[in-house]
Amino acid sequence: MAQRLVVIGGGAAGMSAASAARRVDPEREIVVLEATGHAAYGLCGIPYYLAGLVERAEALYSYPPSYFRQRRRIDLRLHAEAVELDPERRELRYREGGQDRRLAYGDLVVAAGGAPVQPALPGVTDARVVTVRTLEDAVALRALLDEGRLRTAVVVGAGYVGLEMAEALHARGVRMTVVEAAAQVMPNLDEPVAALVADEVRRHGVDLRLGVPFEGVRRDGDALVALVDGAALPADLVVLAMGVRPAADVATLAGARTGPAGALLVDEEMCTTLPSVYAAGDCIAPQHLVLGRPAYLPLGPAGNKTGRVAGTVVAGGTARFRGVVGTAVVKVFNLAVARTGLTLTEARQALGAEPVATDAVGRSCAKYYPGSEPVTVRLVHEPGGRLLGAQFVSRGEVAKRVDVVATALQAGFDVADLLHLDLSYAPPYAPVYEPVLLAAQAAIAPSAVPA
Amino acid sequence: MAQRLVVIGGGAAGMSAASAARRVDPEREIVVLEATGHAAYGLCGIPYYLAGLVERAEALYSYPPSYFRQRRRIDLRLHAEAVELDPERRELRYREGGQDRRLAYGDLVVAAGGAPVQPALPGVTDARVVTVRTLEDAVALRALLDEGRLRTAVVVGAGYVGLEMAEALHARGVRMTVVEAAAQVMPNLDEPVAALVADEVRRHGVDLRLGVPFEGVRRDGDALVALVDGAALPADLVVLAMGVRPAADVATLAGARTGPAGALLVDEEMCTTLPSVYAAGDCIAPQHLVLGRPAYLPLGPAGNKTGRVAGTVVAGGTARFRGVVGTAVVKVFNLAVARTGLTLTEARQALGAEPVATDAVGRSCAKYYPGSEPVTVRLVHEPGGRLLGAQFVSRGEVAKRVDVVATALQAGFDVADLLHLDLSYAPPYAPVYEPVLLAAQAAIAPSAVPA
Asked: What is the pLDDT of residues A158-182, one digit of tens each?
């Protein structure tokens, strides 16, 4: 019994941990407790399921529960919610089928994910005020959309989830207001880059209101009314997209050490400060390799990788997770928006040296090739020195363009090193001078940018 | 007069050199001698001009000649062909308007580009046997295509130019045979990767014949007949795409040192072994950073960059070109095919250690997102050690995927370092595990690839 591995959370991180442990140790008992009715699905696919681009919710599964149970012999328990952890006795209390149960473990992996931020405001418990964080949330909302009962919505929050939700609802013909307390969309971009994204949102007829507080909702008879900056906005639905916080309470209450945003601190092997308790995914703050300290950036790739490392290590294998550099991409209507490293704002807040930003506009492919689009790129760097980050916006490809800078950050490049990159070129795919090279050239010798 | 800068060649490298020199030195006299009637155009755009995707030849210009003459005060002379170089007297003999002329120079940049390989075979001087290396070649061929007079063609050579030509002619309704002496298409790919490309070519109805020698052409009355492996193939046109050699004769005959393929050897400042003679573009063999020695890889980005470095240095500025890692991408019908570093074949020929290849198939974006395509990736590396190269094939995006590996090669990464890359993810653009990460995982721990 002492050898049993228990994983809290059946999301990407938890199922990666369980699967990696099974690969290393074919014999060990592995139990996964998942609070919802779905496991091992792509959370980031939810907007596309809501939009109707993905027909069935099950299409988001990496594998169905039966696969994990039968092929990988993982005891995956759905609707099973961890409640309390006793690290001394190595015992977990959880609820399943309305009953309180206990489970002894040899090792525990906490991979409970993130939970949507819920503001303490009037009316937010109304049934028509929703968050969309789980596949169950999404299935319920999709049913409403399929019934054609939603004509207007207010989305609270213009981070990447809020904007993805806005796009999805727009695709279903819902008229929409997006309200954001900050003065810009996407706080993880610098303002001039965020302004390009805001333009795109408004171009699609979304009523985007920046710098205005959301104050709650009230009912006006049957009708729902969102309260925004003193105004009353009638809406059939209010979607809260105010960010995600680590769902780490079980471990935190048992004494695990936490860092930024209250996320669990772990080492490169995903060990928390509690004995035999590991953590992975959206409830941890991994090392940020540019910042040089932990950061809370709940994103899919790190979730999968940290889960895999936790499961490998816990089962006796060898694995390490060095950290993240903060790479992300999001589709906002027809724009692809990508970032890695630090924004200028982040760099100025975090680092001693005085960083600068260099902007350039290149092309997605040869200018004469059909479909060529401008690519806006911002490099953040120490003057003539260390590369710190990049942001890209384009109607063309940027997701894999940002990866070049992510790789350069991992390598510790100076901005001048970018000039020497031997990047691929063919008219249908790339211009002869990649946008990032134009920006690097401008960063080194402002007067020497090729016209 | 001694200070005059003369540039041989008005292609991408030559015009980059002239423009860079003008930026550094606003006063100097700069003369560019271009043998053809066009300058500063994107050579790689020719197939798309022939296919009709690009309407006017002038669309391939980066800038028209008048721009260079007036705005950059560059004395660009078209139809002016360098004939002989006297490095002692710093004098160049050239032909212009049917006349022999002489030009003294202070510095010379040789950027004469590449010339198509012309086999010494019967009939290859026939007017319907063409190479397509210059915009003039392309304009003449486009006129034939627009007249609708070409129904059948034989393309000799299945390297990337041959395959691009095949695709262009196919787009214009020409029935085609492609013959290649080697046993595979694209000798710069490993055979299993090249086989995927060959399938794509054949899928489009092209009669692709591998491992067969081209033996010349003959006339059969008015009809043209290509002689291939003893067979006679009637054709309205024969396109020779048998590779490119450095057009370095002027410098070579004057005693400049050459390396692979007879290309000029240069240092990081683009100096040849002749005093005050620099070289750039498709006539040089720059350092290959993975091979650790010069290599002849005539490609656009290095052409532009080496031209720029030569022009900057020659005018008194500071610039360096460290070298290439052999990154290239090509569109072959619906496939994108990319490579960087060394193939397994190249690595085995070149390096002492015994390299290996690890193959994986990932997805271009989330598997449930519309348009998701398989991405085949091959990593070449020392066993558990140094990364040496990669090849990618997909109907989805690979051009910027290969750039990640190119950046990793520049950084001197081991294959294990790839596992730690923080690459962007969003369902419309990328899977949560990038194909290159799947391959790196397989390279490190063959049994631990995520299923």
From this structure: 999 999 999 999 999 999 999 999 9
